[in-house]
Amino acid sequence: MEFEIALYPGDGIGPDVLEQAVRVMHQVGERHGITFKTKTLPWGYEYWKQHGTVVPEGFLDEIREVDSILLGAVGWPDEIPDHETLAPLVKIRQAFDQFACVRPANLFTGLESVLAGRTSAEIDFVVIRENSEGEYIDNGGRFKKGTPDEVAVQTAVHTRKGVERIIRFAFDTARKRRKKLTMATKSNAQKYSYVMWDDILEELKPEYPDVEAERMHCDAAVMNLVRWPDHFDVIVASNLFGDLLTDLGGILGGGLGLAPSSNENPTREFPSMFEPVHGSAPDIAGKGIANPVAAILSLAMMLDHLQCDGAAQNVCTAVEAALAAGAKTPDLGGELTTVEMGDAVLACL
Ligand code: NAI
Ligand code: MG
User: Which residues are found with C-beta within 5 Å of the ion, ligand 2?
Assistant: First the structure.
């Protein structure tokens, strides 16, 4: 088996954490008979210094044909405004119709959650965020700006096609896990959009009789995630609510240094993109102490998407074993460098 992977290291700690993920990728590939051809994209702050833009014109064409994109992190906020550095990511998500953003929250054995006394068996859920429409559509305006009569209007857009495909994706994900789906909306207060979400969930339920599906208002979901994290398996939510719930998931699962994510095009018509949830961490950039686990687990998600299940499982098990054996970077209270943490995972592969 052979895959072509676009590597987008980006800025700050992005290149450091991605380097460790790439080492793991090649080693696990060797074990499972998979060859990864890579193509490194030199985009970001350094590219901008030479060319005045963070990506070349027509950059999408350079990655349209690859099997997947593996990203470190982008952003160098002291030099370039974030909306410029992050714009290519938004374009990639939209152009390649990566409508499902998947963020697992799973506390590893040997680590502590911010929720006192909770174990890894109790914090193991995944949030699926609608990534292409909803509240984050650029649709609105400000009128009489700066005057006492100012009006701001911002309209969310929820399409039947968009809602149906993300709920289906969530049902399919639940089927592969503990077969429990929670849909978080706010249909008690927003009677058009989220009531349509409710209707579509009810329409799809008969197709998934093996999955227990429930509705929960998003405010209650936030509370319940804190008091009963073990209640949850798969959570599906609109773009805005998913954004909020995934940050909560990240912290319950042990913190940013561990949280992976995907931006998936489940139809496989276009490449999907895999990236740690965290950003470029300018405060620790260049120090060699960033935790590479979030990037390595993002690699595992990529392997899973490429249907290399054995390799994906192998990477997750190696991370689990390394953490359980006490391998920790400073964000987890340890002393390992980024490279030493990569070594620890490789040793467990
Ligand atoms: P951040 O996620 O980069 O950092 C937040 C805090 O977490 C910092 O204290 C950082 O040191 C720590 N941290 C993050 N990842 C870590 C890791 N792997 N190991 C150890 N500690 C880690 O968020 P921040 O500071 O708000 O943003 C910095 C830049 O990153 C900005 O330019 C922002 O726009 C960008 N960003 C990019 C994202 C992406 O590439 N997808 C996502 C989020 C932010
Ligand atoms: Mg967010």
Answer: 243
Instruction: Output the domain CATH number for residue 61.
Output: 3.40.718.10
Q: What SS3 class is residue 150?
A: coil
pLDDT 10s digits, 20-40: 999 999 999 999 999 999 999
Got the DSSP string for 211-246?
Answer: SEEEEEEHHHHHHHHHH-GGG-SEEEE-HHHHHHHH
C-alpha–C-alpha distance, residues 187 and 248, integer Å: 21
Pairing of strands 180-185, 212-217: parallel
Query: Which residue's CA is the closest to the ligand 1 atom numbered 30?
Result: 279
344 and 309 co-located in one domain: yes
96 and 140 housed in the same domain: no
Q: Which domain holds residue 270?
A: 1-103+259-349
277 & 324 share domain: yes
- Positive or negative: CA dihedral 335, 339, 342, 347: negative
Q: Is the CB of 86 under 6 A from ligand 1?
A: yes
Residue 77 sits in the same domain as residue 134: no
Task: Note the pLDDT of residue 347.
Answer: 98
Contact 193, 158 (CB under 8 A): yes
Distance separating alpha carbons of residues 321 and 337, to the nearest angstrom: 18
Ligand 1 centroid vs 15 CA: distance in angstroms?
A: 13
Do 144 and 196 lie in one domain? The reply is: yes
Same structural domain, 163 and 208 = yes
Residue 2 has pLDDT above 90, yes or no: yes
Number of separate domains in the chain: 2
Residue 245 and residue 263 in one domain: no
To which H or E segment does residue 126 belong?
Answer: strand 124-130
Distance 205 CA to ligand 2 centre (A): 29
CB of residue 322 inside a 6 A radius of ligand 1? no
Task: Decide: 156 and 134 in contact? Cβ < 8 Å.
Answer: yes
Whether 275 lines ligand 1, by a CB cut-off of 6 Å, is: yes
The helix or strand, by DSSP H or E, that contains position 26, with its residue range, turns out to be helix 14-32
Q: Are 248 and 263 found together in one domain?
A: no
Check if 218 has its Cβ closer than 6 Å to any atom of ligand 1.
Answer: no
**pLDDT confidence band for 346 (50 / 70 / 90):** very high
